[in-house]
Amino acid sequence: MAYGTKTIPAVDKIYGPGNAYVMEAKRQVLGTVGIDLLPGPSEVMIIADAGANPRHVAADLLAQAEHGSGKEIIYFATTSKSLLGKIEKAIAKQLPTLRHADKCAKILNGRCLAVTCKTLAQAVKVANYIAPEHLELQVAAASIEPLSQQITTAGAILQGYMTPTVLGDFTAGPSHTLPTGRAGRFFSGLQATDFMRRSSTVRYDAKSLAKASPVVETFARLEQLDAHGKSLTIRL
To answer: How far is CA 73 from the centre of its chain?
Structure first.
């Protein structure tokens, strides 16, 4: 691939052909101009309890697989083994009806991980490790808040049986530019404040400067930076 006069590596292997040019262009100017995140292929994780509707879960998994880059990642965790079987049947029934059935099947066959957990708390541990871009909590209402408080790494948390990820895609308010590839461990979704530049201001008077002197002099001595220390003591 080529961008201007520079050679771009085959990042489509990571991001898919649609976003590869955009992500690599942003990566090359990072540090020269301000940019937002460098998100990769889209991800979803669904945590479901025994009360989740298998048809709904299947539809949400297929919706994620439909994005089209071929690099999407799908995770599913449930406390119900029987639910998992029902979801597989629901997927098999819904898949042939979709316009992009072949692409969806490719993701489901090669980039989908389903696990059964003994408890929802165990599923939360899995989610916090994965740090998914989108996390659906298809669980009973009483479990939503406790689980949400335990989730520490998800880009966006979609709560309850009636909150599919597509709401975040098309209509819900929160940012849908979210960290991927486990970057949710240290990044948050894009916000308006990310486009605001801030400066810190510091002002000391003679009294406060004198109080700071012992600390500054100690650091200056330890780091053998005499001029640093003198830039304070000369004012005393």
So the answer is: 12
**Per the residue annotation, which of 24, 43, 72, 133 is the catalytic one?**
133
- What are the start-end ranges of the E strands in 36-161? 43-48, 73-78, 112-116, 134-138, 156-159
Nearest CA-CA partner of 67 in 19, 25, 22, 136: 19
What is d(CA 15, CA 40) in angstroms, rounded to the nearest whole number?
5
43 given a catalytic annotation: no
Reported as a pLDDT band with limits 50, 70 and 90, residue 172 is confident
Query: Which of 45, 18, 29 lies closest to 154, judged by CA?
Result: 45
| CA 229 – CA 210 distance, rounded (Å) | 12
- Ranges for all domains in the chain classified under CATH 3.40.50.1980: 43-190
Q: What is the mean pLDDT of the chain?
A: 84
Residue 207: CB partners within 8 Å, gap ≥ 6? none
For 101, phi then psi, to 5°, come to -60, -40
By the 8 A CB rule, do 15 and 41 touch? yes
Which of 56, 67, 134, 176 does the annotation list as catalytic? 134
Please give the single-letter amino acid code of residue 49: D
Task: Compute how many other C-beta atoms are within 10 angstroms of the C-beta atom of residue 225.
Answer: 12
Q: How far apart are CA 138 and CA 127, in angstroms?
A: 13
- What top-level class would CATH report for the domain 43-190? alpha beta
- Reported as a pLDDT band with limits 50, 70 and 90, residue 14 is very low
pLDDT given at position 38: 62
Q: Is 56 annotated in the active site?
A: no
- CA–CA distance from 133 to each of 46, 75, 160, 162, 185 (Å)? 11, 11, 17, 19, 11
